[in-house]
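Consider a typical record:
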Amino acid sequence: MSDTYVRKERADQLVEAAEKLFAAGVMSHSGHANLSARLDGERLLLTPGFVRGLRTEQLATVGFDGQVLEGELQSVSAEIIAMHSAVYKARPHVGAIIHTHSPSATAFAVAHRPLPCRTEPMLRFGQAEDVPVVPWGPRGSDVSVRGIADVLERCPTTAAVLLANHGLLVFGPDSAATAHLVVAIEESAEAEIAAAAIGGAVDFPPGAQEAVRAAIARVRS
């Protein structure tokens, strides 16, 4: 596939993912988020500093080194290139990243509490473990980026992290799958908070992940 085709395909997918997040009602009041998609081993597509009403021609092509190669970025997005690049470098299989301030997930981030995996959508969409918390650092700073890299190394199978006092960072094979997981995590965080009022959430029984995988395999066979 040509570079132009790949870029258009990934750009279309990012716009669709942004629309899905708003339609699902998982965005903060401000609608703040940033989304990216891997183009290759050195470049990514990045939203320009806003995502509401996003169009494909507004996406910028950026090098992992922080250089803007095509398009324009507001300073608010330029600050987080290193955050996205760190995830792509640490996880070669990751094709897309989404950062939001989804309210219920952000509540766990503000409380510095990992989000337990206690809902089936989290199992099904790729987060079969607690979502860990990255210690706070100024947005886009070396401290913040090192914190993310450290947690990814310590938790090699997590597909999401909570950024302390900030928000949610989710990554997956493509934009659609990543958006599905953002929604699943926000719903799970809402359920955890609601369950606390009626005695608290309860863990899955042993073997739950294997049972879900078997159910998915039966449908696909």
